[in-house]
Amino acid sequence: MSQTKTDRAWEILFDRHHILQKIQQDGFFEIQAKEIKEVREPRLMAKFDHFSHLPKLFKEHGLSILPLSRSSYIIGEFNVYEKVKYNPRLKPIQVDLPSMITTIDPANLYSESSALHCAHVTGMMERILGESSYQTISGRMSSKEFNFNIQTKQGMERFIEIKNSQIEIDGGYESEHQFMIVEAKNETVDDFLVRQLYYPYRLWKEKTNKKVIPVFFTFSNDIFSFFIYEFTDPNRYNSLKLIEQKDFIIAHEGIVHDDIMGVFRSAQNVPEPEIPFPQADSFMRVVDLLGLLVENDLSKEQITLNYAFDERQTSYYTRAGMYLGLIETYRDGNKQVMFRLTRAGREIMGLKTKEKFLRLTRSILIHEPFRQVLAEYFEKGTLPEKARVVEIMKKSQLYNVHKESTYFRRASTVMGWVNWILQLPETY
């Protein structure tokens, strides 16, 4: 994989300050923001919301970084991320958008703030808290001073002191007896940085006598997912425990098996495009990427740095969108390659839930391999084996796929996308 600017900058800093040797000697290394700034802007060098974003040197040596204050950071072998496991059997609770609301469009919730506003006005926070709530805070603030123990990769505990670090809260919701702190992402994720809940939790635990509830929230594929946690020991960073996952969706006309069958029958095959056949197993992530591009045109680096994609995934998923005719590229004024939605992509992403997912289904089934695999499912009641999927693909005149191993890798995408189609009636 190619090196990012952040990778190169950290290589310089590790070499200049003998960071690995100091960590081996002391168990940690403190670095000043001004020292980081000598090679690159600290805000680009020290904020890694997901494990996949960590620089190469950090991944290779099991390291992570946390802010101690506005001007210093600590690097060590700390466990700082929490894995997110979505419950696939959880049926989203349908909620209604109040009819008097005209300034929220549920078909256009492609920013974290708009998704959170919608969640609040439709009563999702109330259902989680069990009592009515008001949004009272959001944005940046100081953490004040506190200390805690954090687990190292070897299972030991290290004591850390925080002095006025900057924190950011996406939403704080206060009810009669509780205060809920929400960290939000507008995409499906594999993990998140516990600090984004822990530092605000410690600040507000001191400032209010109400129960403080840390919540991680994602809005993806029209589903609002809330992961409700507690810190079983407020003084331990790694004491985060999942209490419950609650999923919601704005009330809509449901998708049924006959809808899928109708799209299958009416979808007209198109010739295979001269674009690499997709290697992007999760169609949910394709939909996430389309949603991100509703808000802004993005470069490959912006997608990789700001969302839960690593560099390889960014390439795979942008190509998948291009294969479907929903994403295109252009060069901006700096000759940088930018990704944007095509007219068809923009039109689909502006539709209501049922129409949107049926149109996305059509964009898949106009391609022969996917249509044939689904046809065999309808015929036999089970998905064909991977070897059979490869047979189907070989007869479909795919662009520039020759090796047996490539066919087998790409077959996972065919099966993943067809599975996504088949699960639509269960989910929506």
From TrEMBL:
Q: From what superkingdom does this record's organism come? A: Bacteria
Pinpoint the DUF6997 domain residues. 76-249
Q: Which residues form the DUF6996 domain?
A: 7-75
InterPro entries hit by this protein: DUF6996 (IPR054265), DUF6997 (IPR054266), DUF7226 (IPR055650)
Query: Which residues belong to any copy of the DUF7226 domain?
Result: 285-425
Q: What is this protein called?
A: Translation elongation factor
